[in-house]
Specification:
Elements (H helix, E strand, L loop, with lengths): L2 H24 L4 H26 L10 H22 L5 H17 L7
Helix pairs in contact: 1-2, 1-4, 2-4, 3-4
């Protein structure tokens, strides 16, 4: 497991802890918390993208191929569709649907080799 993936996992755990604590304290998930988590996720994708570029130049051996990012974008679009559907159908409140989306976007950079992805 690369250091970037370990860092992304630790950031994901920290985000989950922060969201759970906030949800238990005030009974809702604030957008600020989710936006911060999404920014951290985008930073993780940026770090992976820089590593992919370095790998395409032959500087590193372990990196993600560029086709990974198009698959991750498709995964994000499907996750967004599901979270919106669950929110619009009244299954989840808006904060939970947004948290689901942020978590779903985090998963591919934590473990790109997972079967579901």
């Amino acid at each position: 497991m690369t250091p970037i993936r370990i860092l992304c996992f630790l950031l994901f755990v920290a985000l989950g802890w922060r969201v759970a604590r906030e949800d238990l304290d005030v009974g809702k998930i604030r957008n600020r918390c989710l936006i911060d988590g999404f920014r951290l996720c985008l930073a993780g994708y940026g770090a992976h993208l820089a590593l992919s570029w370095a790998g395409s130049q032959g500087w590193v051996m372990h990196f993600l191929f560029y086709r990974f990012y198009s698959a991750a974008l498709l995964h994000a679009a499907i996750s967004l569709a599901f979270s919106l559907t669950l929110w619009l159908c009244g299954v989840w409140p808006a904060g939970d649907a947004k948290f689901f989306f942020v978590c779903a976007v985090f998963f591919p950079i934590i473990d790109p080799a997972q079967r579901a992805f």
